[in-house]
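Suppose you are handed only these lines of text.
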Amino acid sequence: MKLNGTSSNTPSNSTSSNGQPVHGSHKNGYSLDGAYADELVDEIGDAHGASSIDTPMRPDAFALDDELKIDLIEEHFREIMSILGLDLTDDSLKGSPRRVAKMYINEVFSGLNPANKPKATLFDNKFRYNEMLVEKDITVQTYCEHHFVPIMGKAHVAYISSGKVIGLSKLNRIVEYFSKRPQVQERLTIQIAEELKRVLETEDVAVIIDAKHLCVSTRGIHDVNSSTITASYSGKFSEDATKQELLRYVTQPSVSI
Ligand SMILES: [Zn+2]
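From them, the structure of the protein bound to zinc ion can be written out as follows.
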């Protein structure tokens, strides 16, 4: 399945044969003028599209173990700070490279590793509850893969049981797992929906995400008010009456306790 890619609104020579953006001199042998290449990279960042439903990963993504990855990221992040001119002997700064490295591997990007995927235990739908189940306002905290700054918002997920149900917290866990990756919101929405369909053995799944992108609010256009909504409706949720019922639940005020 293809998302609206970046190639449709960027010049035809802006992507290589494998759909990857071209950054300056490219290994395929052609090069772009530096300023033009920079502009292109910015445009791809702003387009917020993605080329595939799968997070682009190299086949050797897990050839290094986590401890070694932390050591290497620490080394490289220290280099970045040093290039910025920061004094790495300062008490406040000297622990930052390792802190960032551990945060990347153990926390915010831990969802890149399939070993961390939540195991979903299915239960029989003993109550024969055949209506939709909606869990709304699930916290979403992910990172924009174009700028490596947070995207924060809420996810609403819904399904109609095909005979099996899963624990409510597993819905949160699935959202969390796919969020802990460099992401674009469109891909995150679809990855959550596809996993729910697979786990729940049904096409009757919907996912809506409403989120604020710090790359939009703290840089570039500096729009602090806008939020971005993405949605995936499958099976019965593609039908208008079911979709409208879901949207009613999602837009009504949440209970306060
Ligand atoms: Zn961004």
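What can we learn from it? The mean pLDDT is 87. Residues 122-251 form a domain with the GTP Cyclohydrolase I, domain 2 fold (CATH 3.30.1130.10).
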